## 1
Amino acid sequence: MPGIQRKINQKWGIIAPKPLLTGAFAYLSELIADVCTAMKKELVFFLIDDDKDDIEIFDLALKQTEHSVRLVSTNNGNDAIKMFESDKTFIPDFIFLDLDMPVMDGRACFREIKKLEHLKKIPVYFYTTSPHLLENPEFRLSGTTLFFFKPSYIQELIAFLKNVINKNNPLTNNN
């Protein structure tokens, strides 16, 4: 009788069939591996913003969240859509989208993102300085996760990003 099965029998007086124990241990091993993977998983943030300074500040804030994160960015909606269409395996954990950009603005980009099947469940955050967005019901009711106004202080952005990460992380989400 294997050592583990003998210990179970001694402790609880149970004689469990070997296949049952093997299946239970395999399940627990997979569960532990999944938890470890989730704990180490690098979260990918995709930022679409034409302002290089805003991209740099966003990257600095992300690095201060104390999580494993990576920032991928483009400076207009057209480049973002091309990237998403050319590589359907690239699926970021979060998309942050500025509104006022050249070539393809945030509104048009958002509509195109929502058409892409592999991105439909990805949270899209409008990250903008444009308060008039809240007045547009098309964006409020279209599956956008949140509107976030670009803060004046990097500490506000760090706190917001930590909240986004924790809210969407099953290991830290208490809901």
Note: The helical segments are 3-12, 18-40, 52-63, 77-86, 106-115, 137-140, 154-167.
## 2
Amino acid sequence: MLKLELIKKEIKEYIRTPKGIILASLFIFFALSSPALGRYMNEIIAQVAPEIIFDFPEPNLKDSWIQVYKNMSSICIIVYLIVMTGSIAQEKSKGSILLVLTKKVSRFDFIFSKFLVGTLLYTVLFLVSSIISGWYTNVLFGAFIYDGLFVSLFLFWLMGIFFTALAVFVSVIARHQQPQP
């Protein structure tokens, strides 16, 4: 059975270290900036390059969500993966994994607690950023729901869970190189 102490330890690690603050700040920043970029990109391009004539369609709320998905999948997920990939490898290099595994903790429980807390962290970050993006899209466009919004949000969340599992797996097989004396 999974030990609750391991989960508490992992949650405290994200709260006490800058990892949690960096991830939360990044997800919230892009949750706020993406709808604004989707709404005002035509005006920004017109101001930056007035000599270029273009005929883009008027932005709508789907453009806002497309911008959210692009920024979340390209920047937020990559930073999240970097943090998650180092989770077990960092404990290997510090030697703290030996202390945990000598306390009658199975390797499965240790690794699964990393995955579980990573999933919980991603879910909370994703929910908060989706709510903020939906709110700001509603402010800018007067609506925030389009056909297929909840399916696309669910699939995006599922992609994040898959990447969490992949990051934990890579962290397990990664070997941190020790400096040679």
Note: The mean pLDDT is 86.
## 3
Amino acid sequence: MKRLIARNMRHSTLENAYTEDQDGRFVSLIERPFKSVAWGANHNWGELQARRLKNEGENPVPHYWEHVMWVWGQPDMDAFMALMPKVTLNGHMQNMTVPFLITHGANDRQIPREYAYQSRDQAVNSPHLDFKLFTDEEGGVEHCSADNMEPVKSYIADWVQDRFLAMER
């Protein structure tokens, strides 16, 4: 029932209630009623790119580097890697003053679990901070729960609804 209610909310409400972790810098600066969810907590994406280049080399997946350079508007690998130290939530999470849920898969092989812990540990001013690591028994252990999204989607929808209901009390 909770999941159904959350999914039937107006799109703009859900859009304000759910944001991916890359928007964490924006969310950390707002002061109106808002909620934030990190699904696959990618706290330090820039650092991850340096690791990926070192560990996986030229082709972690086909066309990976061409794709991310295009997404970030960088003309070449040197420009892309020069930008990456800025792509982090370090120095921003302490400004998070809204309810915040972090979910992460225990077997996420794309985003290290340590990044989920960094977001959790640095969000010291969130009035309602929840952290959920999905295990093999629960499902949703891979990156963004690609192996089984339903348990995580339901958990997130229930959490968002519970935060809205708490606002009404």
Note: The chain is about 45% helix and 10% strand.
